[in-house]
Design goal:
This protein is an alpha/beta fold. It has 2 domains: about 120 residues, 3-Layer(aba) Sandwich (Rossmann fold), CATH 3.40.50.720; about 210 residues, Dihydrodipicolinate Reductase, domain 2, CATH 3.30.360.10. It has 10 helices and 17 strands. The strands form 3 sheets. A 9-stranded mixed sheet has the order 16-15-14-13-7-12-11-8-17. Strands 3-2-1-4-5-6 form a 6-stranded parallel sheet, with helices on both faces. A two-stranded antiparallel ribbon has the order 9-10. α6 packs across α8 and α8 packs across α10.
Length: about 375
Amino acid sequence: MQSLAHLRCGLIGTGFIGPVHLEAVKRLGAQVTAVCGSTKSASALAAQWGVPEVYGDYDYRALLASPNVDVVHITSPNRAHVEQSLAALKAGKHVICEKPLGMTTKETAKLVRAAAASDRVFAVNYMCRFFPAVLQMRAMVQRGDLGRIVHVQGHFFQDWLLHATDYNWRVLASEGGKLRAVGDIGTHWIDTLGFILGDRVESVFATLGRAHEQRFRPKGQVQTFAKIDPKKMTPYQVDTEDFASVLLGYRGGTHANLSVSQVAAGWKCSLYLGLYGTEGSVRWDLQQPNELQVGRRDEPNQILQRGTAGFTEDIEGFSDYPGGHPEGFADAHKMHSRAVYQHIASGRKGTPLFATAEDGHEEIRVCEAILKSHAARRWVKLGR
């Protein structure tokens, strides 16, 4: 692997996912030279990780002007993604932007054009592509091990917004977009399946729902997953969904059934996929990331474990530890960043496995079709 030590990262956003990006880059051996966020949080994060440049008061333009930043990681709230990404490309920086890429297809289309016109690398952080099990499933589908994929069943379940007093900026449509559960975690599932199938969504039928019409929010800022004293909260009307049921038709003929929830008690981060083909099936859950269950009708079923026979060659280069040494969430982020940084270091040679601006735009197209389907109570086609 080519050394990545010469590449320098600047991080915009210091909430839950920002430090995950920072750690991933550090594990690659690349440099983290700048951090931007609120003055307090950016200073604290920089001190913790030994980052030399700190840009407080959310002054991301000052970070982009730094000559000591080559790659910008954007982990700010959704509404800022497009503005900051466009500015980063204009400043001549490579970009890794958190998902979703933007709030509407109108704005993400601008970003697709800007990325295409630039000689910089642009990636969207759909990091679930880089779990070894996902890459293994993709290889199985490409080889035809499962036959023709007829249908897919799955979910993405969490419970961190189960209570009316659970709060995060993502709950507000003005901050995160009109779709919350689907936009925040459902798009991970949709992107992962599309990556495995090598196919795009053609039509959707969706129903959205809420567990709470009214929630309570703190009077000040709050970190993701933080616990808040209910006495210090005020009520507000909810304008995003807590859960959803989505049917998806793919161009190649596969039918998929997705359930999404952020109010599913007991589930912390379960992205589950079951692919059912004419020759066999394969099932995987992010909460058990190192195992695949393979099903056959006329043969014994199998449990494949990463790093053992049948789960090695297809993931070469995307797994660093031997079998029995679990790899999970943080490792998938590392592998995603590695893929992007290697693409930069190679001069953009080869076809990238990571999600591009076009892929990020496609996910927003699906989200808008889901909103339209829910409102109209009918199937909605995305068109080409």
